[in-house]
User: Fold this.
Amino acid sequence: MKKAKHDRILLAHGGGGQLMDELIRNLILPKLKNDVLAELGDSAKLNLASGSVCFTTDSYVVKPLFFNGGDIGKLAVCGTINDLAVAGSKPIAMALSLIIEEGFEIKLLEKILDSISEQARLNNVDVVTGDMKTVEAGAADKIFINTAGLGVKLPNVDLGMKNIAVGDKIIINGTIGDHGMTIISQRKDIKFQSSLKSDCACLASLTCQLLQNITGIKFMRDPTRGGLAATLNEISRDSALSIEVREADIPIKAVVQTAADMLGFDVLNIANEGKFVAVVSPESADDCLNICRKHPLGKDAKIIGEIVQTHDVPTVELITKISGRRIIQMPYGRELPRIC
Amino acid sequence: MKKAKHDRILLAHGGGGQLMDELIRNLILPKLKNDVLAELGDSAKLNLASGSVCFTTDSYVVKPLFFNGGDIGKLAVCGTINDLAVAGSKPIAMALSLIIEEGFEIKLLEKILDSISEQARLNNVDVVTGDMKTVEAGAADKIFINTAGLGVKLPNVDLGMKNIAVGDKIIINGTIGDHGMTIISQRKDIKFQSSLKSDCACLASLTCQLLQNITGIKFMRDPTRGGLAATLNEISRDSALSIEVREADIPIKAVVQTAADMLGFDVLNIANEGKFVAVVSPESADDCLNICRKHPLGKDAKIIGEIVQTHDVPTVELITKISGRRIIQMPYGRELPRIC
Assistant:
């Protein structure tokens, strides 16, 4: 690989000329190499197994860029793969778009590209097309990443809120709050020492295994921004059914709970980046749990509650450890900016 | 449509909670409405006519956001549609991702969404999935937009550099430099009065008509950043053939030429946002020109040059108006930051 001529990103790196071409050919292409990307066409040309596809996009503005358990690059790939995975598809291809502030260190860009490359490779997803823009110093905070993704729908899988019925079980594949609490613990103005680690991970290998082996999965969603509280409220609202979850069954690491208590956050509202919530028929729940628990990303999986009859309006209720009840509300939105 | 509660974007609008949900449901969904988007799933589920698809992404950081002939929203839709169009596909669906600075006026966001909606509708492309992130005041310059696009490949169309041969004609569908010179003329530090207007336009209706009617089209590309100079150099380098273009045949508006001369720019390096360069077999060139000239986006189309034998290394040469010759080089990249 030819060494880049510069240590930092210049505005001219986004100008569509020689400098951009060099950066793409010497730094980006070698890290993400695949035949489709190598053509550097205006669009990637793909021959998918079927025209039944899932398509998603997410921009990432996480601060700090590097955190325990991941970085903005890993987060971008996992976030997009997870959106495709919980929609019932096998992720195939990604588009990568970078907005970089003038002066950003090229060695940090390399680290981020290494993460992107590693996650893409581990998940058999190719980065097939991309874009890079530069903005003046002060016009963006270091680097923002957008990833769009394409997946091919798994045959005979039709996930949707419409499938959800009273009695269905709610399963989560592991502990909640790890990502959000890790990010907040590493912010400049708060920073504290802890063993907090983001759960940032790509879920497709687990979701595909589940969906190919279990017919009773009705719906899946990854509880990212807004946390488990937002996802449960969305499920309740859109299915028009109520939900009961048991506090004692929701897996939370002690260090996450302690950090949240200390800072005054409700762990239910905190973002996750390697979790899914699945709504599963009661007959399939144990099989689902068994498959999860044999997978590294599902070893702490639990049935945390059920879909129940709505009496007045659809609500999400928590049965507390001392058998009290409280409503879990849709979070307002101001908990944690720039968590992903 | 329910009125938004706030005049400006708050950080909490990106928090994944109630506020974000309200903004999406009350402002964004009504403007972009279609059945797939309305599901607000983690991914859009699409049934395409075929698995042979084109996939592209671009981020937009243009400054100013609003300019004569368009705005960042129109630019984002057209840019993505054009990348799909010149790759030989019919654009079908788009993903829209917004990164918004805290404090951005919601009425400006509405204007931008109106442009996106209008261009999407005019081009029969649905915005099927999206994302929104907010960052603190000062962490981004107002709003950045990413659009990813999906197109279905036109049957029996196989565009590629490999098809290009000596004797092929080079066609452009109209005047060059309009977009870039318009943007630069409206920058705060330069601002001058003129009749400059961006050529920002979606080319798919014209490219699809051409590709469905003419078999001799070998390759197409839209000369955006780096202008005609960059595109011709890419074609020459990747086909390993030389190119000759005639200065007298390159359509340039007098006002664009004057502005470029005044500010010291070479119009060949200036970005276009509603142009394609097509490499066409000599037998098909006139038919191609005829179709172009009957279309509003091709009325100034011209054959500007030819693919010629390479002698030493592949070069792009300009035959000047006084029959001199000069090499058109790949621009370095520093001409115009944030042009798109």
